[in-house]
Design a protein that fits this description.
Blueprint lengths: L2 H12 L11 H6 L6 H30 L12 H8 L6 H40 L4 H5 L3 H17 L3 H19 L16 H25 L7 E2 L4 H20 L5 E3 L3 E2 L10 E2 H24 L13 E7 L3 E7 L7 H6 L14 H5 L15 H11 L3 E7 L14 E9 L9
Parallel strand pairs: 2-5, 3-5
Antiparallel strand pairs: 1-4, 5-6, 6-8, 7-8
Helix pairs in contact: 3-5, 3-9, 5-7, 5-8, 7-9, 9-14, 10-11, 11-14
């Protein structure tokens, strides 16, 4: 970060808060304009800049909190003969006590490194719109030539791309901070060692919600610049095509990770209520992401159940996954119906908790990049797929929920399902629904 950036940043950040930002709706994005102009470019740059500033404030707060989780929280006693009985549980040996403190400090350093990486990322990308909106950069907007438009499009593209992996980095920071808390709690008479906002679900959701809006605004500008008049919003998307495209991606991920993939049956679209259906606005990239997540989870669950059957008795392929698209009066529903292991209590608790996965092995991005696998997306274990998918749907009034299902449910006149789980994503038709900041 430049010296100039360090001079202006503290004063700028202190004057930025969410009250000065727009409350966006799908309709608001569409009405922004059918092509890029200096006016809507300025609006989007200001919105992204303000949100990056708020994110920076959150990250710095979290870093300072994690920084307090040091050895000073649970100091090693110097005179073990005198202090041992009162400083830590009698049942805990000095060796275990020392080991716990050492492990806690190691996890704390991991969390701090991730947070510092995120802060650096936000500082660097913060500078991109700032330099256009202030000083000499204003000339770029004043003279809105094709080269200048290309330059600004590159700014939005850089922000979107460089923040692409920030969710995984935040997940690593949260997991390490949780580990610190878990390791140190027995050393502090089983009381929490500190109140970390970063471990508060509402605080995490607020950060991720803001990140989603930043990514959406960037995508909207980039798509407008490509000549699509509604930007990131699809007005007349073919629902079957949206589902098929996502299912194909999910199949590739499943096959690459497990070597087998269940068949996916997409049922004909059902229409409830009025038969005169009017196509509604859709954020295709978000819908795609959510369908991929639900589909690959359903496939994995089917395979897990299928593999429990003795090989001499099991079918050649795992049972099918079914997908139903239902047009209702005020919303669109997409149901992903599996015939897998279902949701036990542990899976249900972890399903929508950020960075909390039922998988025993955590996915390593670097290790995956060094492999020869054609598809490097993980099948699971990150603990971010379902939480992010639900957040995407909730931004504009939709939702995502999971329900266990008993066996014997009929999917069609001739098909009866085994027990499993039904995941339903709900997309609201009301394009005036405004997102929170």
């Amino acid at each position: 970060m430049s010296n100039a950036a360090r001079k202006f940043q503290p004063s700028f950040l202190s004057n930025v808060n969410s009250s000065g930002l727009r409350h966006w709706s799908v309709r608001g994005l569409i009405d922004l304009g059918r092509c890029v102009t200096p006016e809507n470019t300025t609006t989007l740059l200001q919105e992204v800049l303000g949100r990056l500033a708020i994110q920076l404030g959150r990250l710095n707060t979290w870093k300072n909190e994690v920084n307090t989780l040091s050895e000073s929280s649970t100091p090693l006693p110097k005179d073990t003969k005198v202090i041992r009985a009162c400083n830590f549980p009698v049942s805990m040996s000095m060796k275990e006590y020392s080991y716990r403190v050492e492990m806690a400090n190691s996890e704390r350093e991991k969390s701090l490194k991730c947070l510092k990486d995120l802060i650096q990322l936000h500082e660097n990308t913060f500078m991109l719109p700032y330099e256009v909106l202030t000083g000499d950069g204003k000339e770029i907007l004043a003279s809105f030539t094709k080269p200048n438009q290309h330059y600004i499009n590159g700014i939005f593209d850089q922000i979107e791309t460089r923040h692409g992996n920030s969710v995984e980095t935040l997940a690593d920071a949260v997991i390490s901070a949780r580990n610190v808390e878990e390791i140190l709690t027995p050393l502090s008479k089983n009381e929490p060692v500190a109140a970390l906002n970063m471990l508060n679900d509402a605080s995490i959701e607020s950060f991720l919600h803001s990140r989603l809006l930043i990514q959406l605004l960037c995508e909207h500008y980039i798509t407008l610049n490509k000549g699509k008049p509604t930007g990131a919003i699809s007005l007349d998307a073919d629902l079957v095509d949206v589902v098929e495209d996502a299912v194909q991606d999910a199949k590739q991920i499943c096959d690459a990770n497990l070597g087998v993939c269940p068949e996916v049956v997409i049922r004909p679209i059902e229409t409830h209520g009025s038969k005169d259906f009017i196509a509604r606005p859709l954020i295709r990239s978000w819908s795609h992401h959510a369908i991929v997540e639900l589909s690959k989870n359903a496939m994995k669950s089917n395979i897990e159940r299928w593999e429990k059957v003795p090989s001499v008795l099991r079918e050649q392929l795992p049972p099918c996954v079914f997908i139903k698209v239902i047009r209702d009066t005020d919303h669109l529903s997409i149901q992903v119906v599996d015939q897998g292991v279902g949701l036990d209590e542990e899976r249900a608790q972890k399903a929508f908790r950020f960075a909390s996965s039922s998988s025993q092995e955590r996915w390593d991005r670097l290790q995956a990049q060094q492999s020869y696998c054609a598809v490097r997306e993980p099948l699971g274990s990150l603990g971010v797929g379902l939480p992010i998918s639900r957040m995407m749907l909730r931004v504009f009034g939709g939702d995502l929920y999971l329900v266990n299902r008993e066996s014997g449910v009929r999917i069609s006149e001739h098909e009866v399902l085994a027990s499993g789980c039904t995941a339903t994503m709900k997309i609201l038709y009301d394009d005036s629904f405004t997102a929170m900041n």
